[in-house]
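Predicting structure from sequence has reshaped protein science. With that in mind, we have picked out one protein's residues alongside their backbone shape tokens:
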Amino acid sequence: MKDVLLKTECLSKSFSNGGMLRHILKNIDLELYAGDFTVIMGASGAGKSTLLYALSGMDKPSLGRICFGEEEISGYGQDQLALFRRKHCGFVFQQIYLIDTMSVMDNVLAAGMLVNRDRKALLKKAEELFAAVGISKEVQKKFPTQISGGEAQRAGIVRALINQPKILFADEPTGALNSKTGLDVLDTLTKCNEQGQSIVMVTHDMRSARRGNRILYLKDGAILGECALGAYRSGDRERQEALSGFLREMGW
């Protein structure tokens, strides 16, 4: 039986638009489990990114509860949410937010120093993570503008992992990459998950979605259905067919 890592009850999010109330998320009850690679899919405007931001404490829900273990984070103020994210969450976005005036290594260490002031221990951990994702020492010394998009995104994953987060949140992490570099990033995320890292990823890409073991499909702000795929195996045609069939059923 897997441990429940994150749980929502009647999670809702609304925005006021020109005096009209727009409901983005509608009474979502959800449990996320430790060790899962959960993928959130759905058409544009379905509420995928809004759900990810609410789950991660980047945005506050309008109604409902979000619990991280025994800790209810939905009632937290901004300072408490910032501390929660810093301690428990890692983030990888489509846009790669590395600081151009700092080396790749210093980008990672700067994120680590927010939680751990032991620079020597951080440096050791960063070197281990860079080695795991295939980033050489030469690339670590360069500035973000001097490396490829794939290298930058993998460096972004290292930065997201440096504080050993309970959950890694990824929002379209391959959306700005070409096919080859996107595959490298997906391989990196898969490897992290195989080593026990819990991941929640938003994507509209079938190739990316196949990496998840659990697929959630959102429509009009609600979970329309979900699909269990099991552990990822490269070249698994049954997995591909199961996901394709599920998405057709959802109206993809």
In short: The mean pLDDT is 93. The beta strands are 4-17, 20-33, 37-42, 63-68, 71-72, 89-93, 167-171, 198-202, 214-219, 222-228. Residues 179-194 form the longest helix (16 residues).
